[in-house]
Amino acid sequence: APRRPDLVVHLAALAGVRPSLADPARYADVNVTGTQRVIDAAAAHGVRRLVFASSSSVYGLDSRPPFKESDPCLKPVSPYASTKRAGELLLFTAHHLNALDVTCLRFFTVFGPRQRPDLAIHKFARLIAAGQPIELYGDGSSSRDYTFIDDIVDGVVAAIDEATGAAPGYRIYNLGGSRTTTLLELVDLLGKALGKTPHVEWRPEQPGDMQRTLADLTLSTRALRYAPRVSMEDGIRRFVEWLDRVGGGTA
User: Fold this and answer.
1) CA atoms within 13 A on the CB side of 244
2) Which of 6, 86, 113, 251 is within CB 3.0–4.6 Å of 246 for a Cys-Cys bond?
3) Catalytic residue among 27, 59, 80, 146
4) Do residues 67 and 180 make contact, with C-beta atoms less than 8 angstroms apart?
5) Mean pLDDT value across residues 86-112
6) What is the reported pLDDT for 235?
């Protein structure tokens, strides 16, 4: 007999803003077509609920921090951002046509143990630990709302457990750390946690990058009781401890 899961959590994607600039068609194939295939498979197996990992990158030129879920999100600045917004829209269509109950979770710059090695915190930490220079783009004042992985997991579990009511809904929630850390502050935190002095090489600002991100958590706090608990300092310390354990993050 076919399996009939109650709910699907769709986390699969080709991630990353900068790599998407080099290969937009592959990002569209994996993230847009791939998401539609997940929706189709859910329909074929009678799945009534779907939780989707979206991204803070959907907030583009028509958003001002702190970003609210009600922002129009019609001016994304990278192919990756466009594909994540497209995924949200495909899920709205499935909600409308097939009564699929949908929760989209917009993750804000997730970090922590086992983080992808191409992302800033992991890449910078490896280079600083090895005494090699790190490249910073812009003037160091750009800032991100970083979210520790444990807080993201708590938010995803809360979305799974949310009492959704009898009628299928379509919901979007921000999952962020609700604080901003500048690039220079991040490098300073990493240097202190590693006990090393970072050597910085400056580069021009990159296309596709947002100047500042910050999550408005009003909605997710109210609906999911979401409350990030891991401070930036503690999160960086935990990440560096993991990096040390695996010998520079090669595992």
Assistant:
1) 10
2) 251
3) 80
4) no
5) 98
6) 98
